[in-house]
Prior knowledge:
The complex is a heterodimer of chains A (259) and B (182). With 259 residues, chain A is mainly alpha-helical.
Amino acid sequence: xxxxMHQFQIHxxxxxxxxxxxxxxxxxxxxxxxxxxxxxxxxxxxxxxxxAARQAVVPGRLQSVGEMLYGLVDDLAGSIIGHEGKxxxxxxxxxxxxxxxxxxxxxxxxxxATSQLAVTVTLAMLTILTVVVVGFARNGFGxxxxxxxxxxxxxxxxxMVPIEIISFLVRPVTLALRLFGNMxxxxxxxxxxxxxxxxLGLLATGGGIASLGILGSVVSLGSVVALTALEFIxxxxxxxxxxxxxxxxxxxxxxxxxx
Amino acid sequence: MANETTxxxxxxxxxxxxxxxxxPQFQFVWxxxxxxxxxxxFVVLYVLLSKLFLPRVGGTIQTRADKIAADVAQARDLxxxxxxxxxxxxxxxxxxxTHAQRTASEAKAKANAExxxxxxxxxxxxxxxxxxxxxxxxxxRDAALGNVRTIASDIAAAITDKLxxxxxxADEVETALTAAxx
Lengths: 259, 182
């Protein structure tokens, strides 16, 4: 049976020289299959919007899809952040569309960029750093009020403040691990069940009581079909959840005074 | 897998490589490249989307909303205008109907008057003719009656002559006729 983890193995596609980036040290900027996957996803988004961002008053099918995605994220940012959501809409939309494209590409190609912890951690850190920067830019040191819930008795603050700090620090971890876990889990399960189809089918060729293996093979095939459908939902849902949580975290610091 | 791990190990020279069932995601040698490329691609994508594509999509949605609002407003204006024109037309129609009715009644009255005048004139002519005719008839009758008296006197004279053999004088006959007539 094929190793279900093999699909996550990174290898170089184009060898590029290492670059000494200030603050990061020596970085190997070779194009790996992960980078190709990210680039394809970004390129796909650009091609999609180059075709979909037509300005017809009566939209075609592709334009409708583009405007639907726009409306989805616009409503999300508007309903969670409020009237200031417009400022953060491009950032949230970029996150959403990029994650969605990488998730969907993983359903068609052999490699899923969002199943790489490096990718999800980077996206999560990017989001949280944006939240922190926006928080300080808007509120100055009032940002720390985020950790002091209002309307709580003073003696409870001793308990509440550490909890709030921990919950804030856990946010990037959960953002990264949720996306990573969902993508890797789905693809591993798909791979394992797909492997069962072959291995149980081969077992059945042995004849005798082992012929019953063909039943297991059929069940596995059905499972793979069902799981593939489920994975498409997960691919969309995880991109949406990431965008929604980004909005929630941004709302915390944008509308800090109203807490 | 063991072979691959060895290859990876050789090609990257990474130590602490996961053995056996370790996740490829934890081969940290691949992290810096992915992080840098991801940030680069993300920034490019962000710039493209926020400066080029999203304003176009948003602009189109806004344009459509504006156009629909403008069209609805225009339709409402046209409806109001049409209603006003319809009211004007109805008023004009009513006026025209009143006018027509008055004209008709006037024409009818005029025609009646003319007919009456003409009838009166005809009747006058007829009455005149009738009077003339009556006069003529009276004259004729009188003449006839005069003749009757002459005939009667002639017959009376003749009868008297026959019966008596004596011719009556004109005075005697006249006296007798007058007495008979009375």
